[in-house]
Write a structure and sequence with these properties.
Blueprint (H helix, E strand, L loop, with lengths): L13 H15 L35 H18 L9 H8 L24 H9 L6 E5 L37 H6 L2 H10 L9 H11 L3 E6 L5 H5 L6 E3 L2 E8 L5 E2 L1 H10 L14 E5 L8 H13 L2 E5 L11 H4 L6 E5 L8 E4 L2 H12 L2 H10 L6
Parallel strand pairs: 1-2, 1-7, 2-3, 7-8, 8-9
Antiparallel strand pairs: 4-5, 4-6
Length: 390
């Protein structure tokens, strides 16, 4: 059974954790879980009581084209279901699933064959899956790259990343800004960063955030697992039920020593307005910090509660703007069920991915929405959530 506690882990420990997760999922797979690495018997990790299979409702026209593609998809899934459960499905099976492609502009009366192209599936292929209802349970994994267009730098880009711009604080190493022991000794670096990033004050959601909200509005979003702490998903309109903020958020706060909850608004006032970290009024020893997950701290209970069910039922994983450097979140592309194609929208190729679209997240999201016919909705939503800085 999987451990009941997940903790943030730097990349140096990734190999060891991969082995642990692989062993845990191999144990769970003994129940015959259709090629997935996750079993269905873990009471500690559920789908939050949500029947994901019945959660979506698309107005689909059953045309010959649709039936042909649905049949081809079913055959590909059947092939995947018979693979060895202790390993990921054969890449050829996954590619045959990912290669389903049909004309997007055909009339209902025109019979057209489903075509399995020889080349690697692309963004246009993803469009066909969504348009024809083949992907209706979409999981999104997002990182700092989705917030770059808002003006928030990512963490690791050389020269411009947040870690490269923390030298003024004299940190022993860049990640110390998210180290509890360092924070208790010297909270000033984190306080400065928190005052800059506090949601709702300076930065507006990007097109990428709005795309996730749009997926939810169309009943296509199972969950958005975000590694970000900027809160822009909430501001874009993604509901808390559909969001897992893997590394925490600023809405609540607590003591680093006794874990006593602290008023979030008062924490914001002292950090943002007074530029100081509150002392715990309960134990009078610890420091108050927003409920952001620091290195070595446990991830939110919600992460492990929904992870298994979400990844078991997903039929499309979209990974956006992440270096996949911090486990266990970085392992999500490996944990997803074998029937689920994995799309990466990013500057660099990272992780085990089936379709890679290279570039800025917002640019590719906009192109995707144009192909889907969602551009007007996306731009309207983006305009409506922009902060008024006047």
């Amino acid at each position: 059974m999987l451990s009941s506690t997940f903790k943030t882990t730097p990349k140096a420990s990734l190999s060891k954790l991969c082995s642990h997760v692989a062993e845990s999922f191999a144990e769970n797979s003994s129940d015959g879980s259709n090629g997935s690495r996750a079993g269905k018997d873990d009471d500690n990790i559920t789908a939050d009581g949500i029947d994901i299979a019945n959660e979506t409702s698309l107005d689909l026209k059953i045309t010959p084209q649709y039936e042909a593609v649905a049949s081809a998809l079913k055959n590909a899934k059947d092939n995947l279901d018979t693979t060895n459960e202790s390993k990921r499905p054969d890449p050829c099976c996954r590619k045959s699933l990912a290669a389903m492609s049909i004309s997007a502009d055909g009339d209902d009366d025109d019979e057209k064959e489903a075509v399995v192209p020889d080349d690697q599936p692309t963004l246009e292929t993803v469009v066909q899956w969504i348009k024809y209802g083949l992907c209706r349970n979409i999981v999104v994994l997002s990182g700092a790259g989705v917030s770059c267009a808002a003006g928030i730098p990512d963490f690791r880009t050389p020269g411009t990343g947040l870690y490269d711009n923390l030298e003024k604080f004299g940190l022993p190493y860049p990640e110390a800004i998210f180290d509890v022991s360092f924070y208790e000794d010297n909270p000033r670096p984190f306080v400065s960063l928190a005052a800059e990033l506090w949601p709702g004050m300076k930065y507006s959601p990007t097109l990428s955030h709005c795309f996730v909200a749009l997926l939810e509005s169309k009943n296509l979003l199972v969950r958005n697992f975000t590694q970000n702490i900027d809160g822009l998903e909430i501001l874009a309109g993604v509901s808390e039920d559909k969001l897992v903020e893997c590394h925490g958020h600023f809405r609540t706060a607590s003591c680093t020593s006794c874990d006593e909850p602290f008023d979030g608004k008062e924490c914001k006032r002292q950090i943002v307005e007074e530029q100081m970290a509150p002392k715990c009024p309960e134990c009078e020893y610890g420091m108050i910090k927003p409920d952001i997950v620091f290195f070595g701290e446990s991830l939110p209970v919600r992460f492990r509660k929904v992870l298994h069910g979400d990844l078991e039922n997903a039929d499309l994983l979209i990974v956006m703007g992440t270096s996949l450097n911090v486990a266990p979140v970085s392992l999500i592309p490996e944990m997803v069920n074998g029937r689920c194609p994995r799309v990466l929208i990013n500057h660099e190729l990272v992780g085990d991915i089936d379709i890679f679209e290279q570039g800025n997240c917002d640019d590719i999201v906009l192109e995707l929405c144009k192909l889907l016919g969602w551009e007007e909705e996306l731009m309207s939503l983006h305009a409506s959530v922009k902060l008024n800085m006047d």
